[in-house]
Amino acid sequence: MQYTLLSLLLLSSLTLFSGCGSEVQDMSLHTAPITGAPEKGVFVSSVEGLEFTRTLSPVPQITDNGASYSYRTGELVNFHVGNLQIGEAVGLSIITPKDIVSYKNLELNTSINSSEVNNRVRLLMALDIDTNANGIQISQATRTLAKNWSTPDYSLNANDFNASVSSATAGQVTLSITKDEAKTHFEEALRCVYSGAYRGSWIMPSGAKEGFVGVMIQSNGSIVALGDGQDVNNDGNYSDVIYSTGDHNMDTGNYDFNATYHFDANLGRIVSSNLTNIDGEGSSQGYNRVSGSFVQDGKNGAYTATRVGEGMNVSYRYTGFGYFNNDGSPDASDDPILGLFTFDISRDGTITGLIHDARTNEEPSLTGSVNFTTGDVNMTLDSGEGHTLSGNIDFTTNSSNLYLQWYDATPSKLGYISGVGCQLQPHN
Fold it and tell me: What's this model's pTM, rounded to 2 decimal places?
C-alpha cells in the first residue's frame, strides 16, 4: 500500500459518539442494510478463542491468533464464550468493550473506569489460558465449560462483580484480576490502536484554499501535527510551516495542542514561536479518523483526516521524529529536526512506512525488514539519495522506545530517528 503522511497541520475538534437528550437510546432498535463482501475486523485487546456469531452467520466461529473476526457492513456481531455473553456491536474494523457498551445503550458510561467496560476486560483477562502479557487466549476447554455458564451483571461494582462471576460460572472462574490491572491493560491496548498517522483535507480560515492535513498520534499518548500552507505572520501569504504538539486522551478520544512552533527554513529546523493567533482542539472519530476545527485570528476552519497504513493488520507500529546530525548522537540539543516518521512491521517482519521531510514537504517511503529473534532492523529510505537506517528493536516488551542510525550513501552517519512503538498483533 502507498503511504502518505503529514503534509499540513491543523488543530481540531469533534464530539465523539454520544446520546442525544435524556431519553435512553437502545441501539439494538436501529438497523441498517447489510451490504458488501465479508471484511476482517479485530477484537481489542488481542483476544484469541473468543466465539462470535453474525446476523447472516448464526453458527459460532472463533477469533484467530490475530483476534480477528469476519463481518459485513451493517451486520451485527455478537461475542461470547459458550453461554457467557460479552456483548454485541455493529461490525467494524476494530471492536472493543467500549463499543459493545455504547451499542447496548448510548447513555452508558464507556470510560475505561466504568463498571460496564472494566468488568468485561477483567473477565476476559481472567479467562486467559496463561494470564501473561502476550494477549488473551481462551482455550477450547474453557469454551466447553462455558456452555453451562450464564452471563454476570457487568454493571456491578468490582467486589459485587466477583460474586456475580462466581455464581454465573458455578465457581469455575475466580476473578484475580483487579480493576486497576484491567484498566492498565486496556489503556495500553487503546493507545496502540489509536497510534499512527492520519491524513486528509482542510479548508483555510478564509475558505479560499483547500489542502492537506496530517496528524500523528503516538502510543505514549502524545500527539503531533506538522504543516505548511499557514499564514503565521498574517501577511496574507500562506507559505509558512508550523509544528504543534499536545496530548491525546485515548479514553475520550479528545486531544488538544499546548505548544506551537515555527519551522525556520534558513536554520533547517523547528524553533520556538509565539503563535498565539492559532488555537485548536479535537478528537478521534472512531479508531481510523480524526476530525475537527481550528481558530486563527477569530476565523474558523475545519478538516477530516483518515488513517494511513495497514490499520490493525500488522504486528508493530512505530512513530517519532527524524534528526540531522552527522555524529548520530541523540543527546545533542541543537540537532536540526528533519520531520516525522511512521512505519508498520508486518507479521513476517516486513517494514513499510515513510518520513515526512518538513524542509521540502516531501514524503520518501521507508521499506525494509526486521529479524524478530535478534531485533536487527535494516531499512532503505526511498529518497533517491541512497539513505539507509539500521539498529535494533527490543521485542521482549509490548511497547518500546526506538533509536535507529541514519546513513547516507557513503555510508557515513547522517543522523537518526527516535520514537516509540507498540504491539498490535502477535508476530510469526
Answer: 0.82
